[in-house]
Amino acid sequence: MTNLHDTIQQLRAELTSYAISRRERAQIERELKRAIAAQDRKGAMDREAPG
Asked: Would you say which domain of life the source belongs to (predicted)?
C-alpha cells in the first residue's frame, strides 16, 4: 500500500500527461484534492496528538 505522499506524487505526474481526456483529468484532479485534504488532516492530527 502506498502512502499519501506517494499517491499525491503519482497523481501530479499523471496530470502532466497529454494523453488523458478531460474526464480523466477531472477525475485525477478530484482524487488529488482528496489526497491532499487527507494528508492535511493527518498532519493536523499528528500535531495535536500528545507526545
From this structure: Bacteria
